[in-house]
Every structure is written in C-alpha cells, then in structure tokens.
Specification:
With 105 residues, this protein is mostly helical. It has one domain (19-101). It is built from two helices and two strands; from the N terminus they run αββα. The chain has helices at residues 19-31, 59-101; strands spanning 38-42, 48-52. It has a two-stranded antiparallel sheet. Strand 1 (38-42) and strand 2 (48-52) form a beta hairpin. The protein is elongated and about 65 Å long. It starts with 18 loop residues before the first helix and ends with a helix.
C-alpha cells in the first residue's frame, strides 16, 4: 500500500468491504499522531498493528475521524452478529436436513 496523505483523494476500486479505505484512514490517523499516542493493538484476533489517536488532526479532521470510528464500531458489531447467526444456522442444519430426507418438509 502507498502512504496516503491528508488532502489526497483515495480510491478503493473494489469497494466490497472498503478494506483499502479503512487501511488508508488508519494509516493517516497513525501518521497524524504524536509518538506518545500511538499504541499496538489487536482487533478481532487479527495481527497486532500500530494505531494512533490522531491528536495532530485539525478539529474538522477529528470530527470526520470520530464519525469513521463510529461506523467501524457498527461494522464490528454487524460482523459479530453475522458470526453468531452463522453458528446458529450451522447448528440447525442437521435437523433441517434430517427432516428433508425424512420427507417432513
């Protein structure tokens, strides 16, 4: 990945999960952080990465970063609900198949 800068336009041509956009956002936020506000973190069991607070962002940039953080939090909650729903479906599948093969559906 390249090193995006504030003011540049970023394009995520696939835009499926917006992964490139999220990576660009997190890169800029970390690059706009004082060293004392950069921490190593791990999200959802993934690799350990450096994340910054973005303390050197302007007030408008902080407002946008806060909004993006809110969206990312909601996306994490949706992913967690999706994982839980998949587990429930996986648990139900054997009984559905048993009924189907017994001609009970």
């Amino acid at each position: 990945m390249v090193a995006p800068k504030i003011g540049e336009t970023m394009c995520d041509p696939a835009a499926g999960t917006f992964g490139f956009g999220i990576a660009a956002y997190e890169f800029i936020r970390t690059a706009s952080s004082s060293p004392e506000f950069i921490r190593e973190m791990q999200r959802n069991g993934g690799p350990v990465v450096r994340r910054g607070l973005g303390d050197r962002l302007t007030p408008e940039q902080r407002r946008i970063a806060s909004y993006l953080d809110c969206l990312l939090s909601k996306a994490d909650a949706i992913r967690a609900a999706q994982v839980e729903t998949q587990k429930e479906l996986d648990a139900l599948m054997p009984s559905v198949l048993a009924k189907a093969f017994a001609g009970e559906l």
